[in-house]
Amino acid sequence: MNFNRIVENSPEDLYNSIEESQLGLFAAGEGSQYNAQYNWWGSNSDPYLRGRIVGEQVSYDPWMVMRFTASPASTTAGSTSTLTADLRYDNQGNFHDPINGHIPDNTMVTFTTNLGNVGSKSVSVPLVNGIALAILRADEGAGFAWLTASLDSELLTLGMTINPTVASAATTKTIGMQETGQPILPLILAGLMVLGGIILPRRIK
């Protein structure tokens, strides 16, 4: 009994489910261990320690856990980042190729943000082959965004810096001024001629 989503079940419910799924495969005697590895138990924590969801007859370790990442890990106002909830790894860090089994498709993961949007401030996205994706759009300016991904009892949080956009440097040009007015040298010479009495008076006939 592997790669299932098992939540809100008692140990008795689990035993009955396993016995029904394995009916005709083998006869379980006293003390037999039921194989319930690689399942999602509603949280990343140990299902036995978390309220004894499983009993001692169930071999449940390793179990599947959820990881939450953003790519890129920081972004710029007006840009985007891809958020990923990944349930393809077990609690020991081993990757499981979905071709060999994965948590059921259409299991809904909820993403939220307090800055920008993921469709709105919150969006629920189905798992497909063990992963769920959402796009964060940094369309509310610069700041620090708190992002979450939640499934059943598990809530994972990421912090992301949204940087301001860098303004393009203004290109400056020097514009030459057009020369206007009269040339100054002839004016100076004319002034000197007047002052020096060089200009002769008109001859009287």
Number of strands: 10
- Label the overall shape: rod-shaped
At the fold tier of CATH, the topology name is Immunoglobulin-like
Domain count: 1
- Structural class, from helix and strand content? mainly beta
Uncertain parts? 23-30, 168-172
**Intertermini distance:** 138 Å
Strand content: 25-35%
Which radius of gyration do the C-alpha atoms yield? 39 Å
The string of secondary-structure elements, in order, is: HEEEEEEEEEEH
- Placed side by side, the strands forming the largest sheet appear as 4-10-9-6-7
How can the largest sheet be summarized?
5 strands, mixed
Which bin fits the share of residues in helices?
10-25%
- Please report the number of helical segments: 2
CATH class category label: Mainly Beta
CATH superfamily descriptor: Immunoglobulins
Mean pLDDT: 81
How does this model look, in words?
The protein is mostly beta strands and 205 residues long. The protein has one domain: Immunoglobulins (Immunoglobulin-like). Helix content is 11%, strand content 30%. The chain is built from 2 helices and 10 strands, in the order αββββββββββα. The strands form 3 sheets. Strands 4-10-9-6-7 form a 5-stranded mixed beta sheet, with no helix packed on it. The protein has a 3-stranded antiparallel beta sheet with strand order 3-5-8, with no helix packed on it. The radius of gyration is 39 Å and the shape is rod-shaped. Mean pLDDT is 81; it is low at 23-30 and 168-172.
